[in-house]
């Protein structure tokens, strides 16, 4: 399928009560592309990401993930919400990594990684445990499978969270400020894992404040402010030569 | 080097190393007075209780292990266990219904909880006992057809059944609130993580929400058990021969009211103390961790202090 791992969003609108958080946002991500989203606090970055895997529903606009309308099916006059089972099925193809890790504290690292395949896909337990071990090893945590999240550092927890997403074999992984809750010395270990993923051709949308990561790893970059995409294009190009005054002002602050 | 000389000089002045001197707790005058008063009052009460012949301690001792009292105690224990077990299950169901995104189900559960928490248990017990006045016949069958059978409600709703129904339905409402409190202690991020993996609602409840809510639900449930043990005394009004009613039946004959009330109270006290021990253990176990206690002890690694500032 050529549409796997793609995102097309056009004129997405989303309001919380009277506050419009996304104002006609467009987003185009190709398969295997790494897209970073930057912007000031409250500009709607998280909301956009959360719409892409259905944690929020969009009010209007077209949102296609993996080539399918996400969370809805289209008829002549409306978009109808999909039944929960269908939505859950679509979600299994989109991984999400949260700022606060959100590992299940009642499960060990291995059980966390296995949770998706075993509980959702009803995969074989033994096989899933083996796969979980491989994934934990690939994020450098082969020894830590039996630990509970409370016994792991933030950086380790976030790597387990990434492994948990990977265990579902998603076509896309969304990262919402994956390193913002980490001690500075732990940021590198998580970014390295993400860089590995990028090399292996995973489609990734990353909300981040790590401009170094954006510059080195990202293909495209989006700068959002106040619910609008102000500037988009090649990551290195924007970071070194921002065209819009608002982008220039923001980059001057963070760099 | 400098430290050592300093210490030695101090030692010679005071005669005792200041670092080794004990630190004494301050006791206020109020504390001494409080001790004196409470010892006096306590001794006075004990003396009066022990010497007042109207307490009839001999009678208390005689009936403490009387067969009808012990049978009453057994029934009290049975009612406590049965109504707590059923009430907890129903309460869990109500809490899940209450959290449902299907509005009518959530509203129905909310209405149930409001109704059963908003009226006295005693009234509810008497109500269930007299339900046959409302529905003389209970018919089981398919609505709007004549298939089915009718049962005489009066025969079905004996005192013990009414007691069990009343206590269970009431307890369910309280347990529902406890479970709901436990649910709301589970972070939003946990639910989002489960959602993003594509977990179904039931799976999310079973594997993510309920396990994490347990630490706050279990100690609260223990408290309910202790409360329920004493609450069962209310069903004596229905003529159920539980602990209190068994005592009442005896003193109705012998007029030894106070001694028999003491017998019942002592049993309630003993059972409460017996239940308090596991309860305090449960509370300890679940008080500090909001999550399950890891099986293995935490391995602490000390990092060099000269890390980068946060
Ligand atoms: N569930 C919600 N209900 C009401 N308002 C919300 C909700 N979620 C987000 N908002 C509002 O939407 C706006 C955008 O929020 P969003 O979290 O998308 O910003 P962000 O760009 O991710 O910011 P940050 O960098 O601080 O994470 C904010 O003003 C926020 O207060
Ligand atoms: Mg955000």
Automatic annotation (TrEMBL), chain A:
InterPro entries: AAA+_ATPase, ABC_ATPase_HisP-typ, ABC_transporter-like_ATP-bd, ABC_transporter-like_CS, MetN_ABC_transporter-like, P-loop_NTPase. Residues 7-251 form the ABC transporter domain. SMART domains: AAA. One of its GO terms (cellular component) is plasma membrane. The keyword GTP-binding does not apply. It is an enzyme of class 7 (translocase). Transmembrane segments: none annotated. GO terms for molecular function: ATP binding; ATP hydrolysis activity; ATPase-coupled polar amino acid-transporter activity. It is a peripheral membrane protein. It holds the Pfam family ABC_tran. It catalyses: a polar amino acid(out) + ATP + H2O = a polar amino acid(in) + ADP + phosphate + H(+). It is found in: Cell membrane. Keywords: ATP-binding, Cell membrane, Membrane, Nucleotide-binding, Transport. The keyword Zinc does not apply. PANTHER family: AMINO ACID IMPORT ATP-BINDING PROTEIN, L-CYSTINE IMPORT ATP-BINDING PROTEIN TCYN. This is ABC-type polar-amino-acid transporter. It comes from Paenarthrobacter nitroguajacolicus (Arthrobacter nitroguajacolicus).
């Amino acid at each position: 399928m050529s549409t796997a791992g793609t995102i097309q969003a056009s004129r997405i609108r989303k309001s919380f009560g009277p506050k419009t958080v996304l104002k006609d946002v467009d987003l185009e991500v190709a398969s295997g592309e790494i897209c970073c989203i930057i912007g000031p606090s409250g500009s709607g970055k998280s909301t956009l990401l959360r719409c892409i895997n259905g944690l929020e529903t969009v009010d209007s606009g077209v949102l296609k993930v993996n080539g399918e309308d996400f969370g809805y099916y289209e008829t002549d006059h409306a978009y109808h919400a999909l039944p929960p089972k269908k939505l859950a099925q679509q979600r299994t193809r989109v991984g999400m990594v949260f700022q606060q890790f959100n590992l299940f504290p009642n499960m060990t690292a291995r059980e966390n990684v296995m949770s998706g395949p075993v509980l959702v896909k009803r995969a074989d337990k033994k096989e899933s445990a083996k796969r979980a071990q491989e994934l934990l090893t690939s994020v450098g945590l082969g020894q830590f499978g039996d630990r509970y999240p409370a016994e792991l550092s933030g950086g380790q927890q976030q790597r387990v969270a990434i492994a948990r997403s990977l265990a579902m074999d998603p076509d896309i992984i969304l990262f919402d400020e994956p390193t913002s809750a980490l001690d500075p010395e732990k940021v590198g270990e998580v970014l390295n894992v993400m860089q590995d993923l990028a090399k292996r051709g995973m489609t990734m949308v990353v909300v981040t404040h790590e401009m170094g990561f954006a510059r080195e790893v990202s293909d495209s970059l989006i700068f959002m402010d106040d619910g609008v995409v102000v500037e988009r294009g090649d990551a290195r190009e924007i970071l070194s030569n921002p065209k819009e005054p608002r982008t220039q002002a923001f980059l001057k602050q963070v760099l | 080097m400098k430290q050592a000389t300093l210490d030695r000089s101090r030692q010679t002045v005071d005669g005792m190393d200041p670092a080794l001197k004990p630190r004494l707790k301050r006791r206020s005058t109020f504390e001494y007075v409080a001790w004196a008063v409470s010892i006096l009052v306590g001794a006075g009460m004990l003396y009066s209780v022990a010497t007042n012949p109207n307490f009839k301690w001999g009678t208390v001792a005689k009936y403490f292990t009387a067969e009808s009292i012990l049978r009453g105690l057994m029934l009290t224990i049975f009612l406590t266990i049965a109504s707590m077990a059923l009430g907890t299950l129903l309460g869990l169901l109500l809490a899940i219904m209450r959290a449902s995104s299907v509005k009518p189900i959530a509203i129905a559960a909310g209405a149930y909880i409001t109704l059963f928490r908003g009226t006295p248990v005693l009234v509810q017990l008497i109500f269930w006992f007299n339900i046959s006045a409302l529905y003389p016949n209970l018919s089981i069958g398919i609505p709007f057809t004549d298939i089915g059978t009718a049962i005489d409600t009066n025969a079905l709703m004996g005192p013990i059944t009414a007691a069990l129904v009343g206590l269970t339905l009431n307890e369910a409402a309280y347990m529902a609130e406890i479970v709901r409190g436990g649910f709301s202690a589970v972070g939003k991020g946990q639910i989002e993580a489960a959602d993003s993996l594509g977990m179904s609602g039931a799976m999310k409840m079973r594997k993510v929400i309920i396990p994490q809510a347990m630490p706050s639900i279990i100690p609260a449930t223990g408290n309910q058990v202790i409360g329920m043990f004493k609450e069962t005394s209310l069903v004596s009004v229905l003529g159920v021969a539980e602990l209190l009613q068994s005592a009442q039946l005896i003193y109705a004959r012998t007029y030894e009211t106070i001694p028999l009330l003491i017998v019942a109270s002592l049993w309630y006290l003993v059972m409460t103390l017996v239940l308090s021990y596991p309860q305090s253990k449960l509370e300890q176990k679940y008080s500090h961790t909001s999550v399950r206690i890891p099986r293995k002890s935490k391995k602490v690694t000390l990092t060099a202090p000269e890390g980068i500032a946060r």
